[in-house]
Amino acid sequence: QITLKESGPTLVKPTQTLTLTCTFSGFSLSTSGVGVGWIRQPPGKALEWLALIYWDDDKRYSPSLKSRLTITKDTSKNQVVLTMTNMDPVDTATYYCAHSTGVAWGQGTLVTVSS
Amino acid sequence: EIVMTQSPATLSVSPGERATLSCRASQSVSSNLAWYQQKPGQAPRLLIYGASTRATGIPARFSGSGSGTEFTLTISSLQSEDFAVYYCQQYNNWPLTFGPGTKVDIK
C-alpha cells in the first residue's frame, strides 16, 4: 500500500521561505520510472502542479514558479522536500505531495501566508 | 503549456441518472489523460488514467473515453457518494496541467 504524508509549517510570513517534506512508504524512489511531485490548491480553486522529481534525479518545475522552487529527494529516508522562496499571500493553499502516477496522494497540508 | 478546459462548470443530476463530463486540451495529449474525483476536505482520487482505464478499486459505473484533444468521463448511474468535483489532467507534456473542474451536485 502506497502512502504519502506532508509536513511543514501551517503559517509563514510574507517573503519567508516555505519548506515542506513529503514522507512516503510502499514504494522506492530508486525504482526506475518512479517520481514524487507537489501540487497545490488555493481555497476554492483548481489544482496546480508545482514540481516533480524522478528516481534518476530528473527534476521538473512549473515554468511560472521555477525561480522560486527547489525539489530534492532523500531516497534512504523515503522523503522528498520542496522549498518555495519569497512566499506571498497568494501562495496560501493546500499543498499535496503525490506519486507521479497520481495513484496516491497525501492528505494535504494547508499553508497560510500572512503577517 | 497545454491548457485544459472542462464543461460544464456545474452539472446538476438526480441520483440514478447518467452524468457526462467533458474535457478538452489545447493541443493533442494522445491518451495521456487522467480523471480525478475530489470531495470537500479530501485529496483528489484517481479514477481513470490512459483516458479510459479505471484505476484500482474504481466502480464500473465510471468510464472514460476520447483521445487527442477531446475526452469524456461518464458516470452511468450516479450514487450519493459520486457528488463531488471532477478534474481532468494531462500528463503528456510538462508542465502537467489540470482543468478547472466540473462540480456534480444534486438536482
From TrEMBL, chain B:
It holds the Pfam family V-set. GO terms for cellular component: extracellular region; immunoglobulin complex; plasma membrane. Residues 1-89 form the Ig-like domain. The keyword Nucleotide-binding does not apply. PROSITE patterns: IG_LIKE. Gene3D superfamilies: Immunoglobulins (2.60.40.10). GO terms for biological process: adaptive immune response. Keywords: Adaptive immunity, Immunity, Immunoglobulin, Immunoglobulin domain. Immunoglobulins are composed of two identical heavy chains and two identical light chains; disulfide-linked. This is IGL c596_light_IGKV3-15_IGKJ3. It comes from Homo sapiens (Human).
